[in-house]
Design a protein that fits this description.
By secondary structure, this protein is of the alpha+beta class. It has helices at 37-48, 78-82, 122-136, 158-163; strands spanning 25-31, 53-55, 65-71, 96-98, 107-110, 139-143, 152-153, 156-157, 173-177. It contains four helices and nine strands, in the order βαββαββαβββαβ. It has a three-stranded antiparallel beta sheet, with helices on one face. The N and C termini lie far apart (46 Å).
Length: 180
């Protein structure tokens, strides 16, 4: 039996008449491209009839993937999950830059790549150089987050500032990259 949710206020004040708050627990959501992490949290708050819903890390609106939510008292567990190792999969277009550092931004630079056979070492040489470049990005490194990330700058998401025309420079952070 579910306990009343003290965060929901007086009975009937923030949930439909007769609604029962969801049980405490973790909810794994396969977030599609489009909605923000906050949009998903808001929908779960309505469906679970509770205000006590949080997530273990923001996904960019364009990103798809696992969004870990805590409901009720399980929101306390989220702080332990935020620092856990994560795996990301991405499709990357090498040699192209956009104003927003994502696929939706206006292309600001495009560098062509000559045919691998015309390069020193041919295709094998290209693959070796690419492997070397990726290896240099693994381990403990200092990484500057994208200016269009969800990191807050003076209370405003960095991506909102960038898309609003403001320049944003975020400080580098220590990260561990196990494999690329």
């Amino acid at each position: 039996m579910s306990r009343p949710d003290p965060a929901a206020g007086s009975p009937g004040a923030s949930r439909p008449r007769g609604a029962v708050a969801a049980a405490d627990g973790l909810l794994l959501v396969d977030k599609p491209s489009g909605p923000t992490s906050h949009d998903v949290v808001a929908a779960v708050r309505r469906l679970a009839a509770t205000r006590r819903v949080g997530h273990a890390g923001t996904l960019d609106p364009m990103a798809t993937g696992l969004l870990v939510l805590g409901v009720g008292r399980a929101t306390r567990l989220l702080t332990h999950l935020v620092g856990a190792d994560k795996t990301y999969e991405a499709t990357v277009r090498l040699g192209q830059e956009t104003a927003t550092e994502d696929a939706q931004g206006e292309v600001t630079a495009s560098v062509g790549c000559p045919a691998p056979a015309s390069q020193p070492g041919g295709e094998a040489g290209l693959i070796r150089r690419l492997d070397d470049a990726l290896r240099a990005l693994t381990g403990e490194i200092m990484q500057v987050p994208s200016a269009v990330s969800a990191i807050k700058v003076d209370g405003v998401r960095s991506y909102a500032r960038v898309r609003g025309g403001q320049g944003v420079e975020l400080p580098a952070r220590a990260v561990s990259i196990h494999a690329l």
